């Protein structure tokens, strides 16, 4: 039997993926947009929807960045409301471990899991920047080197809270008058250099026991963190070769944490453009890329690598001849992607070489290096490609990011999903009720061991 | 002149406010952690045209004595996050407002601000929050963010740590309110010609600097539909009344009789004036724990039976009312004349006493011209007679 594909829909966030100037683009704040987005994804029997998080409006050149979608609602609140207008689809939210406390986050996820009948998932991210910290009591105190240690401790502590109720404490027997089988449920005590907490957790065990845990880390440390403790990885390696390399690497790390290969799913983010013919899709994809990378946006991208003001640079001319300013990125703040530029001078040199070889202007170059969609083609080609990638172990499926809110998933759901269903590589309907059921993940138990889902 | 309308809020908590409520025939104690249970209750309150529901919460298991944890196994224990319950229920209702409880002592105002703003979006303008201070040392140990000293029970109303926590709560509400205003209503411009999604001149840093925290802003969530969602608080003494006077739109107080109601209203008005808010509407609602039945003897018998099951007479910070819906209507109208603008009713048993409110009390008040006969506004502010406020940062 071929591998079954897992598919999810990412509500587009505050970056240039969203073509907000398109007349079909709706609100990214109003609940109706989220309702439509989630209901379309559920119509397609997708595993889950995914919401990102932002805790400070981005700035560039000391001004709030205004070229992309700005603003978003609160992740937990939207997911809880979506539980009311959907029945089966999983509800995944990114929640930062730096600007929260384990007790509060654990009770929010346990509550969401109860309120959704077992559909909650947590993408655990970590941050250390003082810029975001200015919005919080805690401030931006975290040393960069501590971020995985604290995230690991945070997740461990939250897990202890999730597991502090075994699941058999609430009896609620009216006749005998016994509500609790245990006089002191939810007891916990955790002490390490990050958290020193003790007492009783107040939310009884939720349907999934723990929410499904996602990780997005890509560094060696991040991969180990995921291999040790996550149920799924939200990766960014969506090409065949890079996907296979990442897949083999991370799956290969599982045995040293006593876990089997099917206990961690690898789900890269992916974009797509569909057309009735290959040519039409390619043409549309190019249009979308140009809309995503306006001349002004191209300059902003350039500045993010160059780490200097390039507002006078001509987007239709060649790349700047000066080199990037090396060191802490000060031009763009609140934007995690700038940290991906680990050697800006070398990257700039690569970009220059590519632009010269292919005769590209600055904007054309930026379109090439940032904008190419993962899957472009007819529904048949895209279905073939996705299936091929998954069967070739480039991933276990994809988290799809449409370029339009809220209707951008509909073409995929209506045209690609049926083809995958016909091939028998994607579910025709939901078989279980919880997100762990959809993902084929075992329930995880108090002692850290796994057991088959009931 | 028509009778000034009474505002009614239903206080929802567990199986009801009597410790034996969960053992009643109509109780659903095994469903207290399900969405269906809460949707059913709020929809019942909405059928009764109530202004809003409150949802209790705390960062601790329930206890008979709210100041001390206990190990009882014969009471409801365990609950869900109130803001998320409200968000889950909101799309299943159309008119009623939500005032979930949020602990401010241990949480981030930035997070709560966007959560309540988002609750306002998912409910199309029906959100508020009931802010609550948590002074217990054992609750502080759950969060680990700060240590709090034990508070002398008899001096709780004036203990320095309590005074400080309420001052901090006022700062917290100030941050909530500034963040809700940190986007002007028309900040999102989607100007394709210039490529600008927002007008950055209409986004505002709030730059709050207080003794306990500072917050830069702006919010990540645009200004909510109501502009300012409602802020509510419960108070039994001068320090919390000061918070109500300084910061709240709705204060809950616990009068014992009409004269006491007048005294409590005056106390809140004094604090409101001291805060320079005389011109603003602050609703003062009286809390009552209600045991209602079709005749007064039946109600008294029911309470006696519940007390018997619980093994002790019902104790409450609020007055316990036992009687018929018509008798309760008499009392509410008398207390309204003392200056209260409405009531927060705590049903002893859910859904029984809530249904007595929606199907007994409400028609009775309607007959007397003292309660709405249909929802007259689309937002919670509207139901409470409050306009949509101007944005403090708007210059035009």
Quick summary:
The complex is a heterodimer of chains A (454) and B (396). Chain A is an alpha/beta fold and 454 residues long.
Q: How far is it from the N-terminal to the C-terminal residue of chain A, by CA?
A: 22 Å
Query: What's the CATH class label of the largest domain in chain A?
Result: Alpha Beta
Structural class, from secondary structure content of chain B?
alpha/beta
The tally of helices of chain A reads 14
List the helices and strands and how they pair.
The complex is a heterodimer of chains A (454) and B (396).
Chain A: E1 6-10, H1 31-43, E2 48-51, E3 59-60, E4 63-64, H2 75-85, E5 90-96, H3 102-115, E6 120-125, H4 130-133, H5 147-162, E7 170-173, E8 178-180, E9 187-191, E10 196-200, E11 212-215, H6 220-229, E12 232-235, H7 240-253, E13 265-270, E14 272-274, H8 278-292, H9 295-306, E15 332-333, H10 344-358, H11 362-370, E16 375-377, H12 379-391, E17 397-400, H13 410-422, H14 435-439, E18 443-444, E19 450-451
Chain B: E1 7-12, H1 35-47, E2 52-55, H2 82-89, E3 97-103, H3 109-122, E4 128-132, H4 137-143, H5 160-180, E5 188-191, E6 196-198, E7 208-209, E8 214-215, E9 230-234, H6 238-247, E10 250-253, H7 258-274, E11 283-292, H8 296-310, E12 319-323, H9 325-337, E13 342-347, H10 352-367, H11 380-383
Parallel strand pairs in B: 1-2, 1-13, 2-3, 3-4, 4-9, 9-10, 10-11, 11-12, 11-13
Antiparallel strand pairs in B: 5-6, 7-8
Helix pairs in contact in B: 1-10, 3-5, 5-6, 6-7, 7-9, 9-10
GO molecular function (chain A): monooxygenase activity; oxidoreductase activity, acting on paired donors, with incorporation or reduction of molecular oxygen
Family (chain A): Belongs to the NtaA/SnaA/DszA monooxygenase family.
Binding site for FMN (chain A): 94, 148, 219
């Amino acid at each position: 039997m071929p591998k079954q594909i897992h598919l999810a829909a990412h509500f587009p966030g505050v970056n240039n993926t969203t073509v907000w100037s398109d007349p079909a683009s709706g609100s990214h704040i109003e609940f109706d947009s989220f309702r439509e987005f989630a209901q379309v994804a559920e119509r397609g029997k997708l595993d889950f929807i995914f919401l990102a998080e932002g805790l400070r409006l981005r700035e560039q050149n000391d001004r709030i960045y205004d070229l992309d979608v700005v603003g978003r609602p609160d992740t937990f609140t939207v997911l809880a409301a979506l539980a009311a207008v959907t029945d089966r689809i999983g509800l995944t939210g990114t929640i930062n471990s730096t600007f929260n406390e384990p007790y509060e986050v654990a009770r929010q996820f346990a509550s969401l899991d109860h309120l959704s009948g077992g559909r909650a998932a947590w993408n655990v991210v970590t941050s250390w920047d003082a810029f975001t910290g200015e919005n919080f009591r805690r401030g931006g105190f975290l040393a960069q080197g501590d971020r995985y240690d604290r995230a690991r401790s945070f997740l461990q502590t939250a897990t202890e809270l999730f597991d502090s109720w075994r699941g058999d404490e609430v009896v609620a027997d009216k006749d005998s008058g016994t509500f609790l089988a245990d006089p002191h449920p939810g007891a916990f005590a955790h002490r390490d250099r990050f958290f020193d907490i003790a007492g009783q957790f107040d939310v009884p065990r939720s349907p999934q026991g723990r929410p499904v845990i996602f990780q997005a880390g890509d560094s060696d440390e991040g991969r180990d963190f995921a291999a040790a403790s996550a149920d799924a990885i939200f990766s960014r390696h969506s090409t065949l070769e890079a996907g296979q390399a990442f897949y083999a690497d991370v799956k290969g790390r599982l045995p040293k944490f006593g876990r089997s290969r099917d206990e961690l799913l690898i789900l890269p983010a992916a974009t797509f453009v569909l057309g009735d013919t290959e040519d039409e899709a390619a043409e549309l994809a190019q249009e979308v890329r140009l809309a995503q990378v306006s001349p002004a946006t191209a300059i902003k991208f350039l500045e993010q690598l160059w780490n200097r003001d390039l507002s006078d640079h001509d987007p239709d001319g060649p790349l700047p001849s000066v080199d990037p300013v090396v060191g802490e990125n000060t031009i763009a703040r609140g934007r995690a992607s700038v940290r991906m530029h680990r050697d800006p001078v070398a990257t700039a040199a690569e970009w220059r070489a590519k632009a010269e070889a292919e005769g590209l202007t600055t904007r054309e170059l930026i379109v090439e290096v940032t904008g190419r969609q993962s899957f472009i083609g007819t529904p048949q080609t895209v279905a073939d490609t996705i299936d091929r990638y998954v069967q070739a172990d480039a991933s276990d499926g994809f988290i799809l990011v449409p370029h339009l809110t809220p209707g951008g998933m509909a073409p995929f759901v209506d045209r690609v999903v049926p083809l995958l269903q016909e091939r028998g590589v994607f579910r025709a309907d939901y078989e279980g009720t919880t997100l762990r059921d959809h993902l084929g993940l075992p329930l995880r138990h108090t002692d850290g061991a796994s057991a088959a889902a009931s | 002149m028509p009778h000034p309308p009474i505002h009614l809020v239903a206080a929802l908590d567990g199986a009801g406010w009597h410790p034996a409520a969960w053992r009643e025939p109509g109780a659903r104690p095994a469903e207290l952690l399900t969405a269906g249970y809460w949707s059913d209750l709020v929809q019942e309150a909405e059928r009764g045209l109530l202004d809003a529901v409150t949802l209790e919460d705390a960062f601790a298991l329930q206890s008979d004595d709210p100041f001390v944890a206990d190990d009882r196994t014969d009471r409801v224990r365990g609950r869900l996050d109130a803001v998320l319950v409200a968000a889950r229920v909101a799309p299943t209702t159309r008119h009623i407002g939500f005032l979930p409880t949020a602990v401010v002592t241990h949480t981030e105002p930035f997070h709560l601000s966007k959560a309540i703003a988002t609750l306002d979006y998912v409910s199309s303008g029906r959100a508020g929050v009931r802010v609550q201070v948590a002074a217990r040392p054992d609750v502080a140990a759950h969060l680990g963010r700060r240590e709090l000293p034990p508070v002398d029970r008899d001096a709780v109303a004036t203990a320095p740590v309590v005074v400080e926590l309420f001052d901090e709560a006022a700062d917290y509400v100030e941050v909530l309110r500034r963040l809700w205003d940190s986007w002007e209503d028309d900040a999102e411009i989607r100007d394709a010609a210039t490529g600008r999604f927002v007008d950055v001149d209409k986004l505002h840093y709030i730059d709050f600097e207080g003794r306990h925290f500072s917050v830069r802003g702006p919010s990540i969530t645009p200004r909510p539909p109501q502009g300012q969602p409602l802020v509510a608080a419960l108070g039994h003494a001068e320090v919390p009344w000061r918070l109500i006077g300084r910061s709240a739109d709705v204060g809950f107080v616990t009068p014992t009789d009409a004269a006491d109601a007048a005294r409590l209203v005056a106390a809140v008005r004094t604090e409101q004036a001291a805060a320079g808010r005389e011109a603003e509407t602050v609703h003062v609602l009286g809390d009552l724990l209600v045991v209602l039945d079709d005749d007064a003897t039946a109600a008294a018998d029911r309470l006696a039976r519940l007390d018997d099951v619980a093994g002790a007479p019902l104790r409450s910070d609020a007055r316990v009312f036992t009687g018929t819906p018509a008798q309760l209507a008499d009392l509410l109208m008398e207390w309204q004349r003392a200056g209260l603008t409405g009531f927060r009713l705590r049903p002893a048993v859910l859904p029984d006493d809530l249904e007595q409110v929606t199907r007994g009390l409400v028609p009775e008040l309607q007959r007397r011209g003292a309660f709405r006969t249909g929802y007259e506004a689309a937002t919670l502010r509207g139901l409470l007679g409050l306009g949509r406020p101007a944005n403090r940062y708007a210059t035009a």
